[in-house]
Amino acid sequence: MNRRASPVTRHPSRDDPIVCRCEEVTLSEVVRAIREGYDTLEELKRKLRVGMGPCQGRTCLPLLARILSRETGRPLDEVMEEISIRPPLIPTPFDLWRGR
Ligand code: FES
After folding, report:
1. How many domains does the chain have?
2. Residue range(s) defining the domain that contains residue 16
3. Which residue out of 20, 67, 85 has the highest number of ligand 1 atoms within 8 Å of its CB and is therefore the one to mutate?
4. Per-residue tens of pLDDT for the chain, all 100 residues
5. What is the bridge-based pairing of β-strands 25-26 and 18-20?
6. Whether residue 51 has its Cβ less than 6 Å from ligand 1
7. 36, 49, 73, 76 — which has fewest CB within 10 A?
8. d(CA 54, ligand 1 centre) in Å
9. Category of 53 on φ-ψ map: left (φ > 0), alpha (ψ -120 to 50) or beta
10. What is the 5 CA–ligand 1 centroid distance (Å)?
11. Residue 60: per-residue pLDDT
């Protein structure tokens, strides 16, 4: 489903909170994907686009790691090692990269 094509923003519910605000991915979508076999952070990112929004996962990747740890029984430290942080760590104007 292409969520960006819809003018309607999804509303979180108490029963199914939003995990990734940027990509509007809910907890139930994450859990369903894990149970389908997407059991690494990279696989979940590719399937659900979690962590690929404007904040680049600053908010949602730690949540996703906790959910993945809980659902798979893997230690949180082990799951957190899968997070690869790439520069720039904050939004950066292009002029900075051009040296102006
Ligand atoms: S909250 Fe998930 S990418 Fe921003």
Report:
1. 1
2. 3-98
3. 20
4. 445 544 456 666 778 999 999 999 999 999 999 999 999 999 999 999 999 898 888 889 999 999 999 999 999 999 988 877 777 777 788 888 887 6
5. antiparallel
6. yes
7. 73
8. 7
9. beta
10. 18
11. 94
